[in-house]
Amino acid sequence: MPVIDVSDVKLSDGDRNEVLRYLGYQGQTISQDLMDTFSECMESVNDAAQPKALYNIYDLHQDEDHLTPGPDRKYPAAVFPDELSFLSGNDIKVHLAGCTQAVLMAATIGLRQDMMTRQQSLMDPLRSVIIDSAGSVLVEAVCDTAEAVLRSRLSEQGLFLTSRFSPGYGDLPLDAQQKFSEVLEIRRIGISVSADFLMTPRKSVTAVLGIAHHPVKKNQRSCDSCNLKGACRFRRMGFFCSE
Amino acid sequence: MSKPLILDGAMGTMLQAAGLRPGEHPEVFGCQHPDVITEIEKKYLAAGSDVIYTNTFGANSKKLQGCGITVDEAVKCALASAEKAVTEHEAATTGQPTPDFSIFKGLKERLSEKGRHHAIALDVGPIGELLEPLGTVTFEDAYAAYAEEIEAGARYGADLIVIETFTDLSDARAAVLAAKEHSDLPVAVTMTFEESGRTFTGTTIASFAMAMEGLGADAVGINCSLGPEEIRPLIEEMEDWTSLPIIVKPNAGLPDPKTGEYRLKAADFAAQMNKYSDLSIALAGGCCGTDPEYIRLLSDTAAKWADPGKRPDRRKRGVCSPSNVCEFGGVRVIGERLNPTGKKKFQQALLEHDMGYICKVALQEEEAGADILDVNVGVPGGDEKELMVEVLRALLGVISLPLQFDSRDPETIEAALRLYPGRAIVNSINADDATLDRMLPVIKKYGAASIVLCLDEDGIPTDARGRIEKAEHVIDRCAQEGIGPEDLLVDCLTLTVSAQQDQARETLKALRYITEHHHTHASLGVSNISFGLPARKHITESFLVQAMACGLDFPIINPNQLEMMDAVASFKVLSGEDANCASYIERFADRVEEKAVEKKKSAASGNAGSNAGSAGDMTIEHAVLKGLKDETRVLAEKALLTMSEEEVINKELIPALDVVGEQYEKGILFLPQLISSANAATAAFDMIKERISARNAGGVNISRGTIVICTVKGDIHDIGKNIVKVVLENYGYHMIDLGKDVPVEKVVDAVKSSGARLLGLSALMTTTLPAMKETIEAVRSASPDTKVMVGGAVVTPEYAAEIGADFYCGDARDSVKAAQEVLG
Predict the structure, then answer these.
(1) CATH classification of B5-310, choosing from 3.20.20.330, 3.40.50.620, 3.40.630.30, 3.50.50.60?
(2) Does the pLDDT of residue B611 top 60, yes or no?
(3) For A38-51, what is the mean pLDDT?
(4) Better-predicted residue by pLDDT, B306 or B69
(5) What residues of chain A lie within 8 A of the CB of B718, using their CB?
(6) Is A96 within the bounds of a domain?
(7) Was domain B615-695 assigned CATH 1.10.1240.10?
(8) Nearest CB to B363: which of A123, A192, A228?
(9) B5-310 shares its CATH topology with B318-561
(10) Which residues in chain B are contacts of A129 at CB distance < 8 A?
(11) Given B137, B398, B794, which is nearest A122 (Cβ)?
(12) Are residues B257 and A82, on separate chains, in Cβ contact within 8 Å?
């Protein structure tokens, strides 16, 4: 499988707001001590991280007889090749509407993050929650980087890339994770999936993106179709994950 | 054996070329198209493979689940294809010489019985899920899956077993043990390393080699992930750590990042492989991206390589965890703190299964610089074997130091060695023949090192001569079992100098003799020397230094005592072990600075007229709100001058925490601030608890009641649960934390044995919500009076009500309200 070199992706000072946001920060006054703790934790996450990403591209067929509503207009429905038949549900079809190819990608920041979080949860709960959030932000940054690399390569060919759509979003069931991991061989970057569809390392992401010949509107994630709607910590605090 | 045996190349690559689709099970494909497999294997045989691997890489119950064929069918079919390939190949190429299979015991005989001269290896790949503590699969479950596949392989005629492409040492051990215990076939093992010399899970080359030689594998090596050039330095390192025959089975180079295609052509692969010619490789082949052409060229080149039978045994010794190697040679500190003897808190933690506390003690030892940790869980009222396994599993999740298992119960030792993914030390064996009869086979089977006590069933000899005799008896017995002296740590026994003053000399005399006359190492439980004397540390330190001078290289001490660790650091300079005094300088460079800072600090606080530093006019509430640990503690100490402990807790700390809770609810504080406030209050609580226990005033009980808390079965998220625990502890509740992924029965047991009136359950995944329901039902019937609170990202108030929980907790603050309602 093709890989993208993301080994240099690190958290920077600018990512601190994102780490804070994961922890429900809404502008409270923060002491210098706490700020320093955030910086130290982000540095530990950077030190422990071993970011990796891989992807593969699959051809989609177009069913001209069936139109699917896409983000802006109706498109011929995407027909998946056999190996992607595990991508079930309507939402992924909408996400890939009008796309001629699909990208499966996976990214991780590695297992050392998990060990560090376990250790800190015993020694210092404050640090453990910050490290956990910082890890989430870093793996997102790794995904963003990988996505940007792909996007720029594709744009050279006049192609466009949709946003990421992961198992568990909308009506794409989490159990798609299992087949996803086999088809993309995500073990090659050290990710494994448990019987409960949990990924190890914990800070790992799998996602599907579409490639189109025409510009694609960024697909805003919608709460209505989200599995976590009832229990979302962002919604509870009054904001959204896609902001 | 004069040249390497040639293995085959990739199966997956060939199957894809023959029509296997991505994500399709190769075993299912193989059963549907057995002749395709036979044809591929025949091509490898024609290319020069002496050994072919069966198409069974994923033929285990975990991977085959739901794909329509059983493990038995997959293995049977794959072996039939391989058998047919060998038969047809040999029929067409009569008169070929039989390769030299002598590195695998009994293989030559097995093949000649079958009348063929190519070997069929049952290919055993990983189950694909990670074992605890990285994942959720237990060692026993993994073992059972491998055992099933291996039994089928043996039944259908495999000649040897190859365990390949593993990344987790625990997983690889499960497979090797299954192979050793469910067949009498030779076992070869290869793991997959990154260029860093570690697997994805952090296993080092040395750990892998040491653990596998310990378990009695017949060959070890590396396959997949990298090309020949990148693997070569890793193989060189492996040769430092094992005397076993070495296998190398690289990919066709690294994949092109843009296409994923492997970059080496067959000729380049063979050219890179030829650089192994001086390494005495015993088995060579190809992995991903290679095909019969690669193997044909490899086979031609390898015929001229160094004789693998003549590799000298230059292996280094040591003990290891998967990620950390402690090489023998020089002083290595064994931490003694994981031991309940004389430690009330530790005893209580064991009986309440509070693994968090135990892991904390271990992490402190690791931080203090211990090299190995001794683990002793013997406590009255506890099942030692079960506790040892429980503690070991918990430690594996957070500790990377190698471990030493300390027990007199052979079953406890055996259970720990079986599970431990590395090479451990057994503490201890002695010269009693009955003990040796029982223990030596176990130590041999798992390849552990051992501490040898110089005593027997008649007790401790009173002079050096007697102790030396006991040690030599054990050294002889071990030699007969094939356990060398370099794996023994002789303990000449420390007796209390205030009681038997002449004995310290005898101990040192025996120690000096043993280390001068035998190739063993020496350990000693040092602290015992000073028991009953004032200012113990002076005696202990002096004895430690003298003992090291007599050859002690494994002192068992408390690494948290700075003086002891300083003495070890100093000794390493004088013995020459600390080259250029580098570690010593590093150790003390910071210390000098610290002292200067301390002086400055004390001068400053001297001016302020108080040791509270900046506390000044601050109130406890303010200090807690700001999350200031030291200030909160100091202010609480001050308050204790005029108030009782209970008053400080109820009138100062709890109201302060209430304010924190309110401000959190209103969004004035956010989560990290809530936690730092809780941490600050903890500092004051801990101080108060210590005062009470120091006064030994059993009458004062500051606990407001007991709460059992855990993350339910199947779920490994515990950050939210940990926050709730810390906050509730601060409100004075006694928390029994069972950890994460906790089986229903364990929760029921804990609730029953503690009599807890409140239970907290957490779940973060929709898939584990049923486990939450199941746990509540079981607790309800076992302990109807216990109230249950639930929380976690996926839990909603409606669901909480539906599954019969008494309280839904959206955050830690809610849990305090629930606790106050139930326990006051």
Answers:
(1) 3.20.20.330
(2) no
(3) 97
(4) B69
(5) 121
(6) yes
(7) yes
(8) A123
(9) yes
(10) 671-672, 675, 719, 723
(11) B398
(12) no
Cβ contact B526:B487 at 8 Å: no
Question: What pTM was computed for the model?
Answer: 0.90
Of chain B, the percentage scoring pLDDT greater than 90 comes to 77
* Closest Cβ–Cβ partner in A110, A114, A190 for B167: A190
Partners of residue B22 in chain A, C-beta under 8 Å: 56, 83, 183
The shortest C-alpha distance from A237 to chain B (Å) reads 9
What are residue A176's phi and psi, to 5 degrees?
A: -65, -20
pLDDT attached to residue B603: 45
Q: Which residue of A has its CA nearest to B289?
A: A1
| Chain B residue nearest residue A236, CA to CA | B810
Kindly report which listed range (A178-182, B435-439, B617-621) carries the lowest average pLDDT score.
B617-621
| Cβ neighbours of A236 in B, within 8 Å | 810
Q: Which residue segment(s) compose the domain that A101 sits in? A: 3-11+50-123+136-236
Per the structure, the count of domains in chain A is 1
Nearest to B21 among A4, A83, A195 (CB): A83
pLDDT band at B605 (very low <50, low <70, confident <90, very high): very low
A77 vs A69, A95, A166, A234, B729, CA distance in Å?
A: 9, 10, 19, 33, 56
Which CATH architecture fits B318-561? Alpha-Beta Barrel (3.20)
Domain ranges for chain B = 5-310, 318-561, 615-695, 706-823
Mean pLDDT confidence for B612-640: 84
- The residue behind tokens 């088995």 is B283
Residue B200's Cα: distance from chain center in Å? Answer: 15
State the pLDDT at residue B606.
Answer: 38
Partners of residue A68 on adjacent β-strands:
A75
Helix (H) or strand (E) holding B808: strand B807-809
Residue A24 forms part of a structural domain: no
Cβ separation A198–B201 shorter than 8 A = no
Exposure string for A168-206, b = 16+ CB within 10 A, e = fewer:
bbbebbbbbbbbbbbbbbbbbbbbbbbebbbbbbbbbbb
CB contact under 8 A, A119 and B398: yes
Q: With a cut of 80, say whether residue B628 has pLDDT above it.
A: yes
No. of H helices and E strands in chain A?
7, 9
ipTM: 0.86
Average pLDDT over residues B385-398: 96
The verdict on a CB contact (< 8 Å) between B626 and A56 is no
